[in-house]
Amino acid sequence: KEMMILVLLLSSLFLSQVGAWQRAKCGTADLVTTWGASIDPSSQDILGDYPRPQMVRDDKSWQNLNGIWQYQPAQPNDPVPFGTTLSDTILVPFPVESCLSGIGQNSKYLWYRLVFDNPFSSNNGKVLIHFGAVDWQSSFWFNGESLGNHTGGYDSFSFDLSASIKNSENELIVYVYDPSEEGFQPHGKQFISAISNPGGDVYTPASGIWQTVWLENVPTSYIANFSMKVDETTLTIKVEVEGSDNNDVTFTVLNHTTVITSSSSPAGSFVNITIPNARLWDPEDPFLYNLTIAYGSDSVLSYFGLRSVSLGYYEHPAINGTGPQYGVDRPGDDMQGSPFELSENDPTLCQKSCESTDGCVAWAYSNSTCDGNNAPLCWLKESIPSAGPNSCRVSGVMSQPAYTARRPFINGRFLFLAGWLDQSFLARWHLHSTNR
Asked: Taking Cα atoms as reference points, which of 175, 23, 177, 178 lies closest to residue 89?
């Protein structure tokens, strides 16, 4: 009867916390997606997918801690609020500035508090807590004792709770400091000012807990992590373990559920596993092998793809120029200084300007009677934009001779990679412009 009363009280506390949450209004840039509008912490497991897909244990070995936590802004010298209900609630793991957090405001100093029961048997191995990411400096306490600290806003980390976890009423407290652009840490384009004045190339900060928090039950001796590399025939892997089990680590490679090969090695040592009749990963056939890793009573499921990445020489074919194309425009990819005025209505003047300009690969022209222009205009292009109809335009593409350049190869063949990974046209013209 007493246990039933306790369960009812805890359920009532949880429901009151959930009831206090609502999506925050986030300034002038509040864009609601269909997914965001459907979030309901009273009936959903928030971001409930398994959080570590490359090292999966069975479903009974983990517990999602995402959901309603206690929260309040902090000060640098605040005492740790042991046993104290905080002033607000927040939906973890959404950053404090986000609408879905329920807060929607920035604070450089943050307190989080969660009280939870142990979902695992107290006599069954170890209990770990994993944080997907917390931005930026964070400190942690569990049942009145310090767990440790972490600095860095983008990497995952873990603590072992086994020594002090109880069956129920476990108290986790998290303190976070994130100065965003006012600090010296890497913060990308996160600016506090973007909250009240969005726009340009700056973004709202993502302070505090912003990735999944979860518990994991592992054996006393367990697989802690592993590193791997591949080529076109071989998987090379090393497994790190925790605990005193002296067993070898065993590996089983599968095509879906069919066993392909297996191997074993001592923990902490690299092993090369050759895959017979290897099926390569390729952008056109992104095939992945399954991999089970076992150590004593512990096992995890992973995956990998076989492929090689290298630099090689590739012969780019010549591109024939188009000459002036009347009624055709090529908008975008303008070079600095475009458009500029020409001395007379003559599209060949624009073409000649492109021919004499380093890095120009295409051009577009408008005469003085179009678009309300006061003079004929010329646009020079640093790459070749898509063509479209426009009766007020004349445009063209410059001829490009064949050339050889070092390019990335996957599995021994060149694949065109868009953007800065390739820049074929720019590289071609910068390479040859002095010889034209």
From this structure: 23
What is the mean predicted confidence (pLDDT) over 246-275? 95
- Backbone torsions φ then ψ of 262, nearest 5 degrees: -145, 165
State yes or no: pLDDT of 220 exceeds 90.
Answer: yes
380 touches 353 (CB < 8 A): yes
What mean pLDDT do residues 138-159 have? 96
Tell me the pTM: 0.78
Instruction: Place 247 in a pLDDT band, splitting at 50, 70 and 90.
Output: confident
* Confidence (pLDDT) at 27: 67
Q: What is the mean pLDDT of residues 398-423?
A: 76
195 neighbors 30 (Cβ within 8 angstroms): no
Among candidates 220, 241, 221, 237, which has minimal Cα distance to 229?
237
Task: Report residue 209: phi and psi, to 5°.
Answer: -75, 120
Q: Is the pLDDT of residue 94 over 80?
A: yes
More confident residue, 197 or 141: 141
Spell out a b/e string for 229-260, using b for 16 or more CB atoms within 10 Å of the CB, else e: ebbeeebebbbebbbebeebbebbbbeeeeeb
Q: What is the mean pLDDT of the chain?
A: 88
Which range has the worst mean pLDDT, 4-13, 187-196, 320-329? 4-13
pLDDT at 356 over 50: yes
- Asked if 355 and 330 touch (Cβ cutoff 8 Å), the reply is no
- Alpha carbons 288 and 210: distance in angstroms, whole number: 29
Task: Give the pLDDT score at 319.
Answer: 85
What CA–CA distances, in Å, run from 228 to 146, 282, 304? 34, 18, 9
